[in-house]
Amino acid sequence: MTILITGCAGFIGSHTTQALLNRGYNVIGIDNLNDYYNPAWKQENLDNLKYENNFTFNRVDITDQEELEKIFKEQQEKNQPIQKIVHLAARAGVRPSIEQPFLYQKVNTKGTLNLLELAREFNVEQFVFASTSAIYGEQQKIPFAEDDPVNKPVSPYAATKKAAELLCYTYSHLYQIKTTCLRFFTVYGPAGRPDMAPYLFTKALLNNQPINKFGDGSTQRDYTYIDDIVSGVCAAVENPFEYEIINLGNNQPVSLNEFIKILEELTKKKAVINLLPLQPGDVPRTYADISKAQKLLGYQPATSFKDGLKKFVDWYKINRV
Amino acid sequence: MKIIITGGSGFLGRHLCRALTAAGHTIKNIDLVNNPEFSTVIADVRDKERMVAEIVDANLVFHLASLIEAGESVKEPFKFIDYNLNGTLSVMEAMRVNNIKNFIFSSSAAIYGEPIRVPIKEDDRTIPINPYGMTKLAMEGLLSSYVSSFGFTGVALRYFNLYGPEEHHQPETHAIPRFIDQIINEKEVTVWGDGQHQRDYVYISDIVEAHLKAIELTQAKPNQYHYLNLSTQQPASVIGVIKQLEVLIGKKAKITHFPDRPGDPRVLTADATKAKEVLNWESKVNLEEGLKQTVSYFQSLEQ
After folding, report:
1. Are A164 and A117 in contact (CB under 8 A)?
2. Among partner residues B32, B33, B39, which is closest to A238 by beta-carbon distance?
3. Count of structural domains, chain A
């Protein structure tokens, strides 16, 4: 079984790639190693992968349709056609999407369309797409369920992911490509993205620097540990559906204030707070209803925020200090 | 060999999946819960059509999917009958339809009920004292009937208290992980009666090894129904276990005694002579070593 994974050098991508390799799949990884954050760390993620001869890396940008097509052709000629696509590559981050909406549109929407077109052309069986909790916007009803209306995204990032989900549906409908859109809820853990709060705050506390706290600290995030997310992605790959949207969250939101308190305990440091107003595009809370994931994917998050954050801090001390 | 495991995401299942793949077998896990390490088909064993579709192209089935809490079974007997019996039957029917003949499962020493003598031998009377034990006995009955009626080869492995690293239940009703958690976190350790009850604790790696040897047994002695006790033959008192845990953890247990549970046998232990003869199996890990491994696992989670 040959699987193409996009964004394989990123945080979620590299962990997912390792899990798929461990399960014995032949994995074709692609990533453009862009400089959204330090490309050397992405290279490090690639270097840390353990495999025998079942992994091939291609430095390709998903907006480059021709280069992508070459990979599909090559695999077909080798008689190892790509049977499944796990599409994780994206421009992430809410705030930067407001600065660079065209870039987000090009990568997240057009890039997804490129892959869907290739999935059609090369008869790919299944398409697993990484969507986001940001799609729920400023929704009042909690927890967020897959059938809740999501027509009011509050950032270009969320809007481009929503557009990509719609394209996924269209392709599953027109060409019978089995498709699962997984809405990830604030994923964190070792090798986590350096633009996200767990990384920024850990770095600041350990260096006795102030942390930027946006708002009064009552905003909540349903932080979900990387191993739980990866387990859900693997289950999605192994249990295909015609078309489903499935939340992968922790179902245990944590407020910003609680988060800072836990981090202070773990690092044994007192945070110096630089209070800032709430940022445009940020949502007040995310909170996943995970009953659909439990039923369809046997998904069961196993890591509490405290345990997960401890693992992150331990990783940070070894790898970034 | 191509092997299908139901319930391969549970405590025994996870260990068994690793051991089977390490031994070169190809496995397919069917469970309601995903196993983070191995491909898992998310399906309910009671779903007859699904089982016919999924239990195909294999030489052998380990049927581990089962409800296991004796206490819960007293409260919810219908649920136990449904999961354990309908689940087992739909797995066996799928095997019959798809011509897979080898069936191995974890039965339980709970099928014996209150023993007339200890150590219990396999052909001693079986009078279960809770719906859980009853469903396990009935599962054995289903298996023996499929052996006679349809040429299956069946192995039922009967044992009492399985323990070891990575054992987690919600809520934690099993004695050893519960005691470890209570002692480490300085919570009350609740003991029924005086704690002098003796129980038969078997370590996970021994039980996994017995399951692997059971594969050989299906090949060496096909078309038979094999039922075997697995035991260390060295029962330990509840208080004795707690004492050993105190030493390993380095903390004193705060023991609270609850009233004796009526009908709780003083000594429960099984004779494992038959397993030695038929399976060439005997337990290798003594309680001290097993507890040491288990404690160090739980301590690693706490750090």
Report:
1. no
2. B39
3. 1
